[in-house]
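Good morning C.,

I know you're traveling, so I'll keep this short. The sequence:
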Amino acid sequence: MDERFRWTVLGLFLACNGCGDDSSTGTSVPGGSPAAPIALQDFAAAYASAMCDNIGACCKQYGFAVDAAACAATYKSTLQTLVGMASQNPPVVQYDPQAAGDCVKLTREAALACSLTDAARDVRNQACAKAVHGTKTAGQACNAPIECAPSSDGYPYCQYASGPTPTPVCLGSPPPSPRASQGQECDGTCIGSMGCVMVPGSTGDKGRCYDSDGLYCDKTSKVCVASPAAGQPCAEQMFCAKGSRCSNSTCKAFEPAKIGAPCVDSLECESGAECTNKICAPENLMASKSACSGAP
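The tokens, ready to paste straight into the viewer:
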């Protein structure tokens, strides 16, 4: 789901895939030319309106309560933090009016569309990350990724460097990917919106196997192995391949629930969907408790 915030609502601006330079030429937006620039003092209200005035139908479709006023108040209040950071002298972060305009336009379109393809999600995140970005360079102390300049992969990172350090620092290159491939060491299995199930005794310094890759972390060998398919032996229900469940130590096939059908967990939903608010919903869904009603 696209609105899983990496740092409350501000997490929206921390993911940027291939941002490029900081020139204000405008991000390519679907359906036409770049949007009009938005002044810093107007950004919080414009973004809140783009999201909260247009997400209602999507929220209702997936069973979320709708409170547009509370949604707008939450976004405005939280995004004012960014405005304040960009208004300081010297500013903690830099603001790009053109990228902000593109971010708001894409957010409005995304809210109306209800869900996004991975490519559309990345375009939107790119514009929003470029709208407000940090200036601290590799090795400088930081409190959150928003303070850091994008690293070599376009994303900002603020975390403890290797070895004992008193405070987190900005990184100049991305940390090792936690997503492990088949045959690589692992310490847990990640299952859609259900999160990650860690292997007993894991130290947290190894990769994770993802069920969406058809893998799980074998707790004996502690390497990623292929999830057993229907008809194959199994030990744990959640680690059977998509479309099958572990019953009497054997993976047995079942018909995955379609988008819109009720569900208990994401394992029940068809490929490309996850269980959201007890309904199988598309991945990268714009609706969430926060987006629909401003609730935490």
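Safe travels,
E.
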